[in-house]
Amino acid sequence: MITIEHLTKFIGIQKDPILHDVNFQFHKGEMIAIVGSSGSGKSTLLQCLSLNQKWDQGSFNVDGVDVLKLGFMGKQKIKKEWAYLEQSPEFNPKRTALKNVIIGQRGQTPWWRRLSGTVRSDDYMGAMDVIESLGLLEKAHFKMGQLSGGERQRIAISRALVHGAKVILADEPVVGLDPKSAESVLEQLRTLCKEERVTVLTVIPLDLAERYGSRIIGLSKGEIVFDVKGRRLTQREKSLI
């Protein structure tokens, strides 16, 4: 179980709260859709959970351990297991999808390996298995520039999984994608939750949240205004965000 208590994040000289006293719990295998208007704190929430931004207040308990009290190595382990996926994932355009998956992002592999592009045979087969599970085996040897936006997002998910991700924090992973590609990405994320017990927290539009989320959390002005499971939102709930 993961428990977030009293998460507060300030911004600016005036220390205005962009997140204020956020509290919730979640379990393995959940697909949590986060919704809210621009500036509600959605992206900041994911960045705090990935430890890409410092918490000003709060506790972050994973299986009874407060992550915020861990040392450098403990936090690095959490960063590896809690993969933050940006709207436009960064890749080396000169390398294939497979090599981008294996070599990983900055901080996931040694600098010399990132520079040389060295690939071990055991890494190769493991990455191919993951890429195949996400329906892109035929694109594994394509350069990244040859892939569509939806395919790039699925390669980003593959990369996170190959490097040990247990939780995926996806910040608007379908922005700019055509409807079919967006559905493909979200279907893959939902399948990972159901079959691999990966946990997903994702910022997506409300209509997609109702279709794909097993749970929907609404944010407004940095506070949770609703947290519903297994159903669509009521009109009153929609009016809160």
Give a structural overview.
The protein has a single domain (2-239), classed as Rossmann fold (3-Layer(aba) Sandwich). Helices cover 37% and strands 25% of the residues. The chain contains nine helices and ten strands. A six-stranded mixed sheet has the order 6-7-8-3-9-10, sandwiched between helices. Strand 4 and strand 5 form a beta hairpin. Helix 3 (97-103) crosses helix 5, helix 3 (97-103) runs parallel beside helix 6 and helix 5 packs across helix 6 (149-162). The longest helix has 18 residues, at 179-196.
What is the mean predicted local confidence, pLDDT? 88
CATH level 3 topology: Rossmann fold
Structural class: alpha/beta
Strand content: 25-35%
The level of helicity is 25-40%
CATH class division: Alpha Beta
Number of helices: 9
Strand order of the largest sheet: 6-7-8-3-9-10
Pfam families: ABC_tran
Protein name: Phosphonate ABC transporter ATP-binding protein
GO molecular function: ATP binding; ATP hydrolysis activity
Organism: Paenibacillus crassostreae
Question: Could you provide a short overview of the structure?
Answer:
With 241 residues, the protein is an alpha/beta fold. The protein has 9 helices and 10 strands.
Any key phrases for this structure?
9 helices, Rossmann fold, 4-stranded antiparallel sheet, alpha/beta
Write the layout of secondary structure elements.
Layout: E1 2-11, E2 16-26, E3 31-35, H1 42-49, E4 57-62, E5 65-66, H2 72-81, E6 82-85, H3 97-103, H4 111-116, H5 121-133, H6 149-162, E7 167-171, H7 179-196, E8 199-203, H8 206-212, E9 215-220, E10 223-229, H9 235-239
Parallel strand pairs: 3-8, 3-9, 6-7, 7-8
Antiparallel strand pairs: 1-2, 1-4, 4-5, 9-10
Helix pairs in contact: 3-5, 3-6, 5-6, 6-7
